[in-house]
Amino acid sequence: MPMRKWLDRSQPLPGATGARAVEVAGHDWRQAALDLAAGGARLHALWTERHEAGAVCALYAGDDFLLLVALALPADETTYAGLTDLFPAANRMQRAAADLTGLRAQEPDSRPWLRHAAWPADFLPLAAGSANAPPVGELQADDYAFVRVTGDGVHEIPVGPVHAGIIEPGHFRFSVVGEKVLRLEERLGYVHKGIEQLFSRLSLLEGHRLAARVSGDSAVAYSWAYCQALEGLAGSRLPARAAYLRALALETERIANHLGDLGALGNDAGFAFGLAQLSRLKELWLRATEVALGSRYLLDYVVPGGVARDAQPELLAALASSARAIGAEVRVVRDIFDEHAGVRDRFVGTGIVTPELAAQLGLVGLAARASGAGRDLRADLPCEPYEALGVRKVVHNEGDVAARVAVRFDELAESIRLVASIAAELPSGSVRTEVATPPAGAMALGAVEGWRGPVIVALTAGDDGSIRRCHPHDPSWQNWPALEYAIIGNIVPDFPLINKSFNLSYSGHDL
Amino acid sequence: MWKTLKQIGSVGVVTEARPPTDDELRLREDLQARILATLGRALCIRQVDAGSCNGCELEIHALNNAFYNIEGLGIRFVASPRHADLLLVTGPVARNMELALRRTYDATPAPKLVVAVGDCGATGGIFGCSYASAGAVANVIPVDVAVPGCPPSPNRILSGILTAITARQRR
User: Fold this and answer.
1) Which one of A116, A306, A408, A466 counts the least CB within 10 Å of its CB?
2) Residues near A108 by beta carbon (within 8 Å), at least 6 away in sequence
3) Helices marked H in A294-376 — which ranges?
4) pLDDT tens-digit profile of B54-64?
5) Which CATH code, of 3.10.20.10, 3.90.580.10, 3.40.50.12280, 2.60.40.1180, is assigned to B20-164?
6) Do the chains contact at B80 and A166, CB–CB below 8 Å?
7) Running DSSP on this structure, what letter comes out for residue A27?
8) Do B65 and A279 touch (CB under 8 A)?
9) Interface contact A119, partner B, CB < 8 A
10) What tens digit of pLDDT does each residue of A125-170 get?
11) CB distance from A17 to chain B under 8 Å?
12) For the whole model, what pTM was predicted?
């Protein structure tokens, strides 16, 4: 099998379980992509860097590996062969990369993605020698080339960037006939904050704080992925107790987000009872988290070499018992959801992503597990302590809102079980170890299954403990395009419900 | 239906007392008297995420839960700046959002209040100012009250909102 050839040529990459890397040149870049696509691998991330010469990195995921294929470009070469024909999700990643480094895929869609009108096209934030800020003129509204749908009775509904709720900003352009959606085109990048450039001004031992703020709802997943990469670079051995506490924090984050989303989904289906009950349970959970682990949201809990603070045994026992009590109440609410004709009517058959489409688009994480693709890094490529904990994967096949709700309910129950077993089996010992300064130029990968899906951090060390390049990658990159398909043929009022059933990150995507 | 009613009945009322106001959070105070005269304490809020990591949004959401019960205080979130008395803005202000934030501010009828939420909204936080970030909300639109924290707790945010709509307390 040709896919194996690339794995055979690859070297292990420090950090994430199963991570490997292979450097290629010229035509091998496309050949590797063709072989990996044929072998059923998925494109997890694509980014570029300009240190001395340019380089393009593609991270592929198979059932038992994460393979980084790195293409070193000759000096003065600023284009490379695109991958959109093989992996549709590559389109936006390539356009974002072009905005940041000027390295451009040879493809017809060259519209900017992260660059709107706030800085000029010739300013490349990640090119070597780029000053921090370009000259600022008067801000103009830019004119993005949306694909126009024409025909009798077709009209457009523009929505955003400021949305009619407490949500992040982005623009949705609906082309509709009556209530029915013919096409949705997303335009993102509004919350681009220059995170990747900012990373290169931080030291390796500070980067976890920024990583946690790439997408605040996945702070533990990001800060863990970052620290996993850093510890891989430094060759640190994570104390067992710290690994268990990180898993506790990650499952805590998953429980909080699933409770919040399930409540909001009930509300979007017109069932305020669901929001009232589940947001109450979420608040109880956040308060229990604050007592046991020190804060409601664990933005600075995961630190290089371990975790920021130990947990008292009696507080952990209280957290586990709080989790079980919440689990019991969630079962009551789930039964009510399942038996409520109005809620079922809104959930079932709405916003379908078929397993075939999910495979074609390379869907990941929670949304993929609702469309028959049972992949979960915690079970497939477990890092410590997940091997010992034994995560039961959740899979549903229908691909509609109801399936994404069911995945959340099932994963919530599984996370509650994991919290209880972590509290019971927590090893003794220290919760933090020293992290040595890694050599400049070394690269590592972090990969953690956050509540939304796999969170990836690719980290390259610079001189004297600095960061040369850090690319954080959110699962939303792959799943945003799927939302455009999920809405086709549905009615406009179902969009908030379908959107919420994915609940993708804007900040994690816009960087 | 029986299960739903039973659940509602067994939970009961969990709403807690509102937090005190905090004059330390106040940045400006020229508008309060006019707003108080016009509105009393009933208030419509338009939330604007101008570039946050979405952490602050999680805690703003919590204001609607039964414990904080912000609607019980006569305060509600609305879908349009045209309906709003107060903008609750999280930051840092991404430069790609700067124009949208200014337009939202302009679309809000006067007299209007602005509360900046979070370390990033208050000061620019970890993101600061760069090619992509304009930093604190006050760098872009006038801010009355800034609530630091990463993210600030729902009670801190509520205290900031109540501070904005309450006249300065006599010391």
Assistant:
1) A466
2) none
3) 313-339, 341-347, 355-361, 365-369
4) 999 999 999 99
5) 3.40.50.12280
6) no
7) T
8) yes
9) yes
10) 888 666 656 656 667 777 888 888 888 899 999 998 988 889 999 9
11) no
12) 0.93
